[in-house]
From TrEMBL:
Residues 96-114, 129-152 have a biased composition (Basic and acidic residues). This is Kinase. Residues 96-152 are annotated as: Disordered. One of its GO terms (molecular function) is inositol hexakisphosphate kinase activity. GO terms for biological process: inositol phosphate biosynthetic process; phosphatidylinositol phosphate biosynthetic process. Its EC number is 2.7.-.-. The keyword Kinase applies. GO terms for cellular component: cytoplasm; nucleus. It comes from Poecilia latipinna (sailfin molly). It is an enzyme of class 2 (transferase). InterPro entries: IPK, IPK_sf. Belongs to the inositol phosphokinase (IPK) family.
Length: 414
């Protein structure tokens, strides 16, 4: 094992052997279509896309506080046992040069099967075994058009309920938070793709990134797709038309932002509410505002103390983006994260926060940009299209988001 990867794993509290790191599903993924895996307490990994990898390696200094920390690249392989269980394991790369496939990332894995992380594409998963916890009961303040269904095996494979409520028992809430519906769907799709390609390829490059939720006991996560345009410059005509249609039929065209995913804990009912991108695309402006209200509401009251720190971060991000010449963040998302349990515990975690020392007494929230698979700027020498000035679509979305959250803040003080 490389010294660099071993040092990262030790700092991350990751169990490891000389053979590699066993990857687990990342339970707090609420949006996107790429499979995100848990590498360790403070680190996640996702499939390497060359353009996104280039962005992280050449990140402008003024953008670093608004993006996850980049931690390198690993090679991910999988095994399938006789029962059809898939095990994903990360190995160090011999070299990070270029983006070509690494043919021999490490020695063959001889780890005993009993020590391998397993989850199944055939057997019923823990989430599905607990499907009775997914409630059809509609909370008092939910929207009439919410589509809430019990979660069963067919829906995992075919259709996602757009809004789901997962009931937690009183007591240790943290220990009950397992896979949310969206992360499970992304994992199953990724594992199926890898299985189908197994004859041709069994090594995939993944990038390592900071786990933005690690310091929170019960993370509430909002994933917002930013900008008035989502397709990259290299998109096919079909892809371009499809993305333009999605923007026109959602709040992306009118306000430059749409809901892409959400999980929020409601303490009054003891439920976690999940909302996915299909519901987000259907929201009107009024519906989008109501969804933001729901995100900052714990079931008992609006968490107004969160709004000022979020607005401060959004305004700082806007200033940084206005100084970014030539960048276009097509299809990037904005994450807003806070702890349903209030201030996060754990000695020293706040000192590693991206916020200033003077904010130690304020509720810990985080606001970051993620997903840079379609990002471009003039420094990317191979790009045929070079843009000038600011990313006005992304900034337009930020401005409208700031306005809407400011209105929430004003109403919360009435």
């Amino acid at each position: 094992m490389s010294p660099a990867l071993e040092a990262l794993m030790q700092a991350d509290g990751t169990p490891y052997s000389a053979k590699g790191v066993m990857l687990e599903p990342f339970v707090h993924q609420v949006g996107g279509h790429s499979c995100v895996l848990r590498f360790g307490e403070q680190t996640i990994c996702k499939p390497l896309i060359p353009r996104e990898h280039q962005f992280y390696k050449n990140l402008p200094l003024e953008m670093r506080k608004f993006t996850p920390q980049y931690k390198g690249v690993v090679s991910v392989s999988f095994e399938e046992d006789e029962e059809g269980n898939l095990c994903l394991i990360a190995y160090p790369l011999h070299s990070e040069s270029g983006d070509s496939e690494n043919k021999d990332p490490s020695a063959d894995c001889q780890e005993p099967k009993s020590k391998m992380l397993k989850w199944s594409n055939k057997k019923q998963s823990p989430l599905l075994q607990e499907k009775e916890n997914y409630s059809k009961d509609r909370p008092r303040n939910s929207r009439k058009e919410d589509k809430i269904m019990s979660y069963n095996r067919d829906e995992v494979q075919q259709q996602q309920a757009e809004v789901l409520y997962f009931s937690l028992e009183k007591g240790n809430v943290v220990s009950q938070i397992k896979h949310n519906p969206w992360s499970l769907k992304c994992h199953q799709q990724q594992l199926q793709r890898m299985k189908e390609n197994a004859k041709h390829r069994n090594q995939y490059k993944f990038i390592l990134l900071e786990n933005l939720t690690w310091r929170y006991r019960v993370p509430c996560v909002l994933d917002l797709k930013m900008g008035t345009r989502q397709h990259g410059d290299d998109a096919s005509e079909e892809k371009k038309a499809n993305q333009i249609r999605k923007c026109q039929q959602s709040t992306s065209a009118s306000i430059g932002v749409r809901l892409c995913g959400m999980q929020v804990y409601q303490s009054d009912s003891g439920q976690i509410m999940f909302m996915n991108k299909y519901h987000g695309r259907k929201l009107t402006l009024a519906g989008f505002k109501e969804a933001l209200y729901q995100f900052f509401h714990n079931g008992r009251r609006l968490r107004h103390e969160l709004l000022s720190p979020v607005l401060r971060r959004l305004r700082e991000m806007q200033a940084a983006l206005e100084a970014c010449e030539s960048y276009r963040f097509y299809s990037s998302s904005l994450l807003i994260i806070y702890d349903a349990g209030g201030l996060s515990g754990g000695g020293g975690s706040s000192s590693r926060s991206s916020h200033g020392a003077g904010e130690a007494s304020s509720p810990e929230v985080d606001v970051r940009m993620i997903d840079f698979a379609h990002t471009t700027c003039r420094h990317y020498g191979e790009d045929s299209v070079v843009h000038e000035g600011q990313d006005s679509g992304f900034i337009f979305g930020l401005q409208n988001l700031i306005t809407i959250i400011s209105q929430l803040e004003e109403h919360s003080t009435d």
